[in-house]
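Researcher: Here's the sequence for the chain we discussed earlier.
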Amino acid sequence: MFDHPLVYVAGLVFCAIGGAVVVKLLDRIRRRDAESEAEQILERARQEVETRLREAELEIKERSLKERAAVEEELKQVRDELRERERALDKRAEVLEQQMDDLRKQERIVESTQRRLTDQLARVQKQEKELDAVLAEQRSTLQRISGLTREQATERLLEELDRELQKETGTLILKREQQIKATVDQKAREILLTALHRYAAAHTAESTTSTVDIPNDEMKGRIIGREGRNIRAFEKATGIDVIIDDTPGVVIVSGFDPVRREIARQALDRLIADGRIHPARIESVVAETEKEIDQLIRRKGEEAAQEVNVHGLHERLLYLLGTLHFRTSYSQNVLRHSIEVAFLTGMMAEMIGLDGDLARRCGLLHDIGKAADHELEGGHPKIGAELLKRHGEAPEVVHAALGHHDQILTEYPYTMLVATADACSASRPGARRESLERYIKRMEELESIAKGFPGVEQAFAIQAGRELRVIASASDTDDAKAAKICRDIAKAFEQQLTYPGEIKITVVRESRFTEMAR
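Model: Thanks. This is the structure I predict for it:
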């Protein structure tokens, strides 16, 4: 029924018109809904804005209230501070007013005092004039009575004062010495005894032997050799004289160099023990012995430096130090003596607050010149100082070697400590032995020097020369003069004698009265 085209077209038109109507209706409905939704959104936004405005107003009011409270609190604090300052200023003003009143009172007192002083000064001046007149009158009266001029009276008065001062000099010396001795002797004794007790080295009488034992007299002929060739070769190789005499079982080795003498002694011992004695063998044994002694010397020097904890010594100084092992002084081994002096010096230096390491170095090297005194000219202090200076040692070490025998002015305290330790080491019982002639000569020197002072009747050296008793004349001296004589004798000993340790001088003055009952 729809096959006709018109009908088909009409249907299509009708459908198009219906669709357009439907679309238009839907668009109207959608527009109405959108307008309603937009109105709702605007209403909600308006309500939210009003709410925000109310909250902002409340917040502003609250903040303004807080700020107002803070400002009021700050103003309150400022007002309180101002009130405190006002009260302080009021108090200060009161104090100042009181001080002003006090000053006015003091001014009045000063004025009155000045008036009184002026009056007293006037009276004093008047009295001085009167006194001058009286003194002038008395002076003229004294001149008429005594018959002396003013210059003569002054000279006599000065002479009297001079006699009184001379009399008081001895008393003052005695008093001061007693005061100083009460403190200085005790402190020095404590330091020395502490150092000596801490280092109590054993001492035995050591001596470098110059004899070699041989098994029989036939060995003497073998040592001499055919036409003396063996002994000549030995003396040429060692530089030491060999003395063969009628003494049974002994050959004497003689030489001024202790090291070479020790080389000769050991080499001769080896040759005698080996039995093969001829020039070639002698040269070989002496060369081997020299090497061994050289190594021994270096080892002894290093051991001594390590023992006293002294480091950084020059190789030459270590060798010379080891050489002292073969050197003796009054039968005392010089190397052991140097080690002992190093320990004593270090202990005393530490007890008085000085450098103990430097003190030990000074003590160890103080006798280094004895290792070369046979090679160079001069005494061992000068030689030792030159060697130490040449090898870069400190001025304190050089000065200690040069002045440990009190031959120069002491510039460093370490020199005095070394001299003290040297005297302590040398004065130990058994450390040194003197011959009888030297001992007697020393006693005579002590007594003769003391007897040379006026007022001394007798002098007796006792305690092996460590103490001197002086008998002073009771009629020619008093206590003050006796004290002065004692001090003068001590000074004379220090200037004229060289001795280890100390010498105690005691002056005795006494009056004796004798009567006979009949």
